[in-house]
Amino acid sequence: MIGTSYQTDTLIVGGGVIGCAIAYELAKAGVQVTVLEKDTLGSQSTRAGAGMLGAQVEMTKPDPMFDLSIQSRALFPKLREELLELSGIDMELHTSGIFRIAVDEADRAALLDRQSWQTEAGQRAVWFEDEELRGELGDILSPTYGALYLPDDHQVRNPQLLLALAASSKRLGARFLEHSAMVCFLQDNGAIVGVKTVDSEIRADRVILAAGAWSGLIANQLGLELPVFPVKGQSFLLDSYSPPTPFTIYTHGCYILPKRNGQVYVGATEETRSGFDRRPNLRSLATLSSQAVQLLPSLGDLPFSTPLAGLRPGSLDGLPFLGSVPGIAGLYVATGHFRNGVLLSAITGRLIAELLTGKTPSVDLEPFSLSRLQHS
């Protein structure tokens, strides 16, 4: 139990993968950091996510988001080593690559175009025709219209990544306050100087808002427009001693990820009208189950393990918000990562830490700044 007042250099509101990644990078830089989480660490979107490091499979055009994703993906092998050494916890980096399967001629044309510009950008992207694809995956149903194989798009297991980040951060001196909901910001002459919880005040030189889908609601307390909204995603886990394929298989409305612990992750819906209700429902899971079995029939014989549902933090233009808040001293944001929170966690942690320690960020933050709303 914390007392009536607590002082920290930097306070992070939100204990998902983004907040924990920032805490780790700040703690590594010697900054005193505290993470405030209203529930348990990673209990919202992080808990339900697939863990894809889909820097290529998720991106449809060469733009700042693609560049940010590629740079973040490249950080994971070294990050895994660091966290494993500090915490003894393995994020279970799985490096077999991703097959993005075309479902019709239009999809095929779009994926071939993606192969072209991604190859020009220096990334590996290999086209498989249906017969070649069947030789690799065997069990898939016909016909397909080919597939784009992305050997450098990997995956991790979300709970392990989160545990590794949190444990490593604690080892470096970070403090985590779970089951401690923020009530309001503390202000002094317009500057943010901390937050108030139900039973305490936490004073801080800087506050980082990293509360995922809830970030927009929290920002409203300040009259701040932060257009981040919940997008519900439902998925489920299957138990398997030996998953039917080592590859991640991805197509419209469905993706299948074999995990190193033997489970298979099947995801995921995208629902914008569910508000903040993150309970799984039968219709969505039944539809997803049907798609998965049509894609990979042997999944139908695997035992059902766990339904999952989470609220992704969406933004109107699909880009996250990263950096300082114009006109509000002491407040920073790191939210709106939508489907790519795990993928972008590594670069987000690094960029926010660079910004707060006086370094020039290694990526131009202008495309991801709140100020972009003024020009839209």
From TrEMBL:
Residues 9-355 form the FAD dependent oxidoreductase domain. GO terms for biological process: thiamine biosynthetic process; thiamine diphosphate biosynthetic process. Gene3D superfamilies: D-Amino Acid Oxidase, subunit A, domain 2, FAD/NAD(P)-binding domain. GO terms for molecular function: flavin adenine dinucleotide binding; glycine oxidase activity. Its EC number is 1.4.3.19. One of its GO terms (cellular component) is cytoplasm. The keyword Oxidoreductase applies. It is an enzyme of class 1 (oxidoreductase). InterPro entries: FAD-dep_OxRdtase (IPR006076), FAD/NAD-bd_sf (IPR036188), Gly_oxidase_ThiO (IPR012727). It catalyses: glycine + O2 + H2O = glyoxylate + H2O2 + NH4(+). Keywords: Oxidoreductase, Thiamine biosynthesis. Pathway: Cofactor biosynthesis; thiamine diphosphate biosynthesis. This is glycine oxidase. The lineage of its organism: Bacteria, Bacillati, Bacillota, Bacilli, Bacillales. The gene is thiO.
